[in-house]
L,D-TPase catalytic domain-containing protein
Amino acid sequence: MTSHTAGRPPGVTPEEAAGRPPGVGPRTWARVPRRSRQVLVVAGHDRNAPVSTAILYERTGTGWRAGTSRPAHNALEGWTDHHREGDLRSPIGVYTLTDAGGRLPDPGTRLPYDHSAGFTTSGTGFDGEPLTGSFDYVVAIDYNRAPGTSPLDRTRPLGPDRGGGIWLHVDHGGPTRGCVSLGKGPMKELLRALDPDRGPVVVMGDAVSLAR
């Protein structure tokens, strides 16, 4: 008896054999649009923790090519299947990435980019870290928002009680209120990599939930 499943070469994960990025299970993958050729997987280390890992996967002719693994933060209390305003948890799910913006000029993204002073923020985070610069670069996560609008647009199709304004933004060194944050360099790289013609999405949640 061999140590690998019949029909699957050794060293190939079940996800890779099924045409999915590593760590993404069949139930999660069923929510990814078929046209998507860019998948940002944000996998939380624990359901109730604010620390994650983010990897951008690109579909090629032979499978999914992984980009660099990046440390990330999510909400203070971790993740939830039913996000509500003020719960300090990030929503688990698969969401399109259609719009970007920031306090700084467009770094060269192909997404629509709203360069605006409206992305200015101040104060301190949960660990006392300064929030200045957190919105220098932003990609809107299409949770409870109207795609095709600035990340600053406050339309909430599910109602205000379900929260909103969930973004990918520059990391300030601590947990967020619901967003996902990456280092400034990785955010700039992500903005330059995302291509609307490749149907980019983010698959986000704790690792156990995403593997289902």
User: Anything to note?
Assistant: Residues 69 and 155 are 33 Å apart (CA to CA). The chain has a mean pLDDT of 93. The first strand starts at residue 38 and ends at 44. DSSP finds four helices and 13 strands in the chain.
